[in-house]
Structures are given as structure tokens and as C-alpha cells.
Amino acid sequence: MAKVKTTWFCQNCGAQHARWQGQCTTCKEWNTLVEEVVQKEKKPSWDAASGDTLSRKRTPQPQLITQIDVTETPRLDTTNAEFNRVLGGGLVPGSVTLLGGEPGIGKSTLLLQVCLNLPYKTLYVSGEESAQQIKMRADRIKQDATNCYILTETKTQNIFRQITEMQPEVLIIDSIQTLQTEIIESTAGSVSQIRECTSELIKFAKETNTPVLLIGHITKDGNIAGPKILEHMVDTVLQFEGDRNHTYRILRALKNRFGSTHEIGIYEMLGHGLREVINPSEILISQRGTSLSGTAIAATMEGMRPLMIEVQALVSTAVYGTPQRSATGYNLKRLNMILAVLEKRAGFKLGQKDVFLNITGGITVDDPAIDLAVVAAILSSNFDIELSSQHCFSAEVGLGGEIRPVSSMEQRVNEAAKLGFEKVFIAPAKQKFKEVGTDVQAFSKIEDLIKYLFS
Ligand code: TYD
Ligand code: MG
């Protein structure tokens, strides 16, 4: 099937090589050679399938920027509020969206669920599962979908043939790594296949104004598998994340040409599909009961949304020589830093203690505002003195033991007030808050806060 000519190009210096080799002989960089098509004998699949007959195909004309009408293309409502929010208000016609995430996290479930609820004619192409498997999953999720078509196929040529016949309004591909185009010989999932298939799909999306959703696998280190340029090619990159052993999942936009990347969507994986968590603080409320030592609540922000998070710490005497430090949902290096600050600035010798830290709900938090709650939880466990469940914390801790302000303070305090917290501990802030209905107490040094809480 040698129809096309491919060559290996170094992605670093652009040198051309006849075959793959580990090191580029020109620039001496390792692992930079990528196969590229230099001459296609056949037309790419989408061109071949569409021909000139397709009525929806448009040939773009230059337009004056002031005369471009943006109202002309309203977004498609996916009827999934969280999904719409992350996309920036719905699916943009002609956009290509890539959804990444670990295996088994629920990517197929999410898109199938979206697809079943779409009021548009949708084609769900799966290269991973059989039609029966998809039907079984659809039965778990719900409902009498009348617009959803399933195709199990991996050859892009065949997919485009079906598309020209049935003219779907939305196309979903599960997953891009399983697709294969005839014009390249390499196996499915290889760099050149992924790139070529994606560019055919992008061409299709742009020419027919059909939104395309792609599922992409991620590698062990959390990047979307395949060439990095895949992320540059598509319009939107979404990431579905969470702990597989917990039920909560977060949908995040890593890149969005049509909206902000600050929005997140929160879901809960249930036996019958994903439930949208419209009010994220309910995650905490369900667990908020009697207070325990070692537990503190942090007012954090996930994207643009305030989220109350429970931090649990366990400090116990080390049995073995080297004390253990473990953090789930929180950066271990940051935990070590906080322990060092506690030792140096507040005189707590935790060097002989095991310290375990856990963020409940299987959520991973990057927001530095959680630091103060981490400090409070650790010391609460260390002294075995419980903190009031009516108190929450929101500030960063610096290396000097100083308590530092964080962004969007007003939103955090408002959320705490809404949930009935009586007191929020924060850093001294320059601006005054409006009347919020909860007591706000500011400290500038952790020593002062510790004295206040534990004596
Ligand atoms: P799946 O969507 O197949 O993940 P991915 O496509 O990201 O690999 O994930 C399915 C997981 O979710 C699987 O372990 C079973 C679970 N699940 C539920 O808990 N409830 C459901 O209704 C469905 C469909 C799946
Ligand atoms: Mg899947």
C-alpha cells in the first residue's frame, strides 16, 4: 500500500532523515524525529468523501473584520449545564474539542451522556467498544434518545463516507488514538496517524460547520498522548479528572478559543451515569457533621467557583526511624514546606512525627489558599484539640510564617457565609468587604493564629 511518501523530520532543527533514528544527526537532539507525509497520492479522506456535491461545504471569502457577524452562529446548547459552562456557553459550530483524561475516568460516559441528550442529530463513532457495549452503557445512563447514531469504525475514509450520507449535526469520536487514515501506513495511535486524522477532522469541522468532539488518551505523566501539536490544532482542550476511587469528577478547560479557561464543571459518577453538581459546596455539606481533631475547612476557588474543602491531617509518633509524610490531593513538597515553616517559625518539632494529609472527596487542590487550613489541621491533630466546624480558613502561608492574602477573597467569604460558617480566618486585606453576614478575622503571623486557636 505504498502510496504516499513520508519522511522523518527533526522537530527541533527541521532536518530531514530517511528513517527513524534516536538522535538527530544534525542538531544532536534525542527523540525529536517525527514522521511526516510529504506527498499524498490520494486526497485526504474528508476531501475524497465530500467531493463537490456536498451542499454544506463552503468556500471562505475574505471579509472585512468589522462586517463579520458573530450573532450568525449561535452556540448549540448541550442541555448539560456544567458542560456548557466549561465550553463557555455551549458548543460552537465548526469547533473541534479534545477531551482528555485517565483511562476509566468517565470520558466515554460523559460524551455519550451529552450525546444522548442532544436535541441534534449526532454521530458517535467508537473505535474502542462494540455497538452492544455502547448500548448497554446508554441503557444505564437513561432514556429514549432519538437523535443518536452509533458507528463502530476506525478508518477515517469509511467514517467520512457515512458522514456524507447521514449528515450529522454533531460528531463525536471515541477516541482519536484508534483512528486510522489510509494515506499513512503507520499503525493507529502513532504520531503521524493522530496528526493526519485530526487534521482531516478539523477540515471537516471547518468546512461543514459541524462541531466535533474528540476523546484523547493521556500518558502516564498526564499529558494528552500523541504529539503536543494536537493540542495546538484543536480549538478547545478539556480535561476530565478526579480520583477513580471517588465519585467526584472535575471537567476543566485547559485551552478554549471561545471562552475562558477559568470555568470548571463538577460531576458525580453514579450508577446511572454522571450527575451534574450545580452547587459544588454540597460535596462538603454532606460530610459536615460533628467536629473531629485534625479536620479543618478551607475556602478555596476552583476556577471561578468558590469551593469549600475539608482537609484532614493525622500526626502521630513515628514508629520507624524516618518519619513518613504523605499527602493525598495536596502537593507533598508544599506539605514539607509547611512543616518546615511550623518548625522554624512557630517552634513545633514535628521531625519525629508521621504526618498524613488528606483532602476529602478525592479532589486535588492547587489553590494556595488551602495552606492555612493545612496548618490548622496539622496542629489540631498534633494537640488533639478539635476545631469548630463553624470555622473556615482561607490564606496562603509564606516561608517567613506570614499569612498572605489570596485572590477573590470576597467570593470566598461570601460562600462561607452562604453555607453558614460563623468565622473565616484570613490574611489582613487592604480592601474592606461589604457586609457579608459572617465574622472575618485576619491574622498576619501563624504564631498569632495558633495562639488564638489552641490556647
Ligand atoms: P468510561 O466512560 O468507560 O471511561 P473512559 O472512557 O474515560 O475510559 O468509564 C467508565 C467508568 O465509570 C467505569 O469504571 C464504570 C463507571 N460507570 C459508573 O460508575 N456509572 C455509569 O453509569 C457508567 C456508565 C459508568
Ligand atoms: Mg472510553
Produce the secondary structure layout.
Layout: E1 5-10, E2 16-17, E3 33-39, H1 45-50, H2 81-87, E4 96-101, H3 107-117, E5 122-126, H4 131-141, E6 148-152, H5 156-166, E7 170-174, H6 191-208, E8 212-217, H7 229-233, E9 236-242, E10 248-256, E11 264-270, E12 273-276, H8 282-285, E13 295-302, E14 305-317, E15 325-328, H9 332-346, E16 353-359, H10 371-383, E17 391-394, E18 396-397, E19 403-404, H11 409-418, E20 423-426, E21 439-442, H12 446-454
The protein binds thymidine-5'-diphosphate and magnesium ion.
Question: What does this protein structure show overall?
Answer:
- The protein is α/β, with parallel strands linked by helices and 455 residues long.
- Helix content is 26%, strand content 26%.
- The chain has 12 helices and 21 strands.
- The chain has helices at 45-50, 81-87, 107-117, 131-141, 156-166, 191-208, 229-233, 282-285, 332-346, 371-383, 409-418, 446-454, and strands at residues 5-10, 16-17, 33-39, 96-101, 122-126, 148-152, 170-174, 212-217, 236-242, 248-256, 264-270, 273-276, 295-302, 305-317, 325-328, 353-359, 391-394, 396-397, 403-404, 423-426, 439-442.
- The strands form 5 sheets. The chain has a 9-stranded mixed β-sheet. Strands 13-14-16-15 form a 4-stranded mixed β-sheet.
- The radius of gyration is 26 Å and the shape is globular.
- The model has no long low-confidence stretch (mean pLDDT 86).
- Magnesium ion binds next to helix 3.
* Gyration radius, in Å: 26 Å
Helix-strand makeup class: alpha/beta
Helix content: 25-40%
Q: Which regions are unreliable across 5 or more consecutive residues at pLDDT < 50?
A: none
| Beta-strand segment tally | 21
Q: Strand-residue fraction?
A: 25-35%
Number of helices: 12
**Shape by Cα distribution:** globular
Largest pleated sheet? 9 strands, mixed
Major sheet: arrangement of strands: 6-5-7-8-4-9-10-11-12
Distance linking N and C termini: 79 Å
The overall pLDDT, averaged over residues, is 86
Bound molecule types: thymidine-5'-diphosphate, magnesium ion
